[in-house]
Design goal:
This protein is α/β, with parallel strands linked by helices and about 575 residues long. Helices cover about 50% and strands about 5% of the residues. It has 28 helices and 7 strands. InterPro entries: CRAL-TRIO_dom, CRAL-TRIO_dom_sf, CRAL/TRIO_N_dom_sf. It holds the Pfam family CRAL_TRIO. One of its GO terms (molecular function) is phosphatidylinositol bisphosphate binding.
Length: about 575
Amino acid sequence: SSGQCGLFSVTRYATSLEVIEPPSEEVLEKVRSEFGLNERRVREAVEQLKEWLVLQPHLPKEMVADDGRLERWLIRCKNSIEKVKKSLDLYYTLKTNIPEIMHGWDMKGDWFKSISSIFFYIPMPQLTPNCDRVTILGFSSPDITNFDVMHQIKIGQMILEIRISEDYCLSDIYILDFNNCTLGHVSKFTLPVLKKYLLCAIGGYNIRLRAMHVLNAPPYAHTLISMVKFLLKSKMAGRVQIHGSDLTSFYEQVPKKILPIEYGGEAGSIAENWDRWKKKVESYHDVFLEREKQKSDESKRPGHTINSSDLLGFEGSFRKLDDKNWYNLEHFTRLFTFRYEMSLEVIEPPSKEALEKVTSEFGLNERRVREAVEQLKNWIELQPHLPKETDDGRLERWLIRCKNSTEKVKKTLDLYYTVRTNVPEIMTGWDTKGNWFKTTSSVMYSGYNARIKAMHVLNAPSYADTIIAMLKSVLKSKLTERIYVHGSDLTSFYEQVPKESLPTEYGGNAGSVQENWDRWKKKLESYHDIFLEREKYKSDETKRPGESVNRSHLLGFEGSFRKLDVD
């Protein structure tokens, strides 16, 4: 029966398959006493919540008959009935407004088998001495071919749904193991995706985070961690700990014996624990399909209805983030990429002196340029998988950017055309007559040189650290050293960048930002037909000598493209 609390409060949906140990009398007493609860107080609070639910016209009544889940919400909300009310309202509202995470939990589809074969999410059977539940997340394979970040997130939500029905603990300890996690995996976790995930997990189920331990973290993992910490309030962000090869401090907080054998523990292997959890999730199939129907009816909500925009501005445990500036990140990336496709007529044509200075920097002269360009054209003709688009001017610019190394130009050109084939969301769709261009260009101006001499960051808000960390994680150390963050004193900035070459807003003489950007927008629009034509020029992987290159290779930077070398 679901009418009982505490030790007997495993919901009526629970199956006979146990993946976590039922709470002992000692655990029950310890958890309840932490928040001033006893059996009588629990029953009283649960009755109050049931009465409140019945009176809410916009909320479903399914939990009125589920004392066990209500008790667990009371524990998670630290014995605050008002917090439980807000949390339950948010839980049902998320199910209405974020269906891409909170719905589609039919694990009989191929998606569940596919994602669960490369990813694991394991709440361990035993609690810590402090009555915390330890959950381990990680990848069993570095292959990103079948990786779908939303499917991964759904599995996490399904397990949280089971735990709110069957688990009994004080708080949570998460272990993020980055072994087998590639840059390709990390790249899927954009800020909007992360915010939705954290909102649904921490907000929807009121997770009480005791600690988050990060293990086996490569440099690019710090980007993802920075994004998570940025989205969390400082109190929760301070509970994120990154461990190196010495795990002494980790084991001081998480007893070895409750961990899998891969971490020196005694609780079985990762595979054994994950197999049990997969069976548990599958046993909830009908429950999940039934619970999908239980969501808020915003047409009946007293007062203001709540939509996804309201939710994604929800603060709670999260920092406020204006997501509309992040959802079109691919559009911003396209604008950066446009710059490299265009000749430079928007800026002053190079003088003879400038030409001589640039070419002499790399030991070039007019004869050497002609010879190198001819070599490159001959090489392109011999590549069966590359288009035969040969333009002396563009080839010369590639030569300059590659510091007079024809071999580097060859590698760069191969990568250029291969990226056009494998990353179409950025490298195609360059129709500047579309609404995306007008919208995006109205809020941004850009212009990067491919060979980074320096990158200066001005007027940086707090979240700029996250973006800079993202850049540094994929650049070589030589390039990361060229990134400068300036405060209010711009003396050092002006020592490197002459004022006269800057817009008036920066004390310069080169016109306003708006005037310069308006010229660039017109230039981009003038390239409309060229962009559409160049979209056709990409690698034909069926004709590549040797192994073909796909998206997984590129995003994992494997094979020939393992290292991102932009210098």
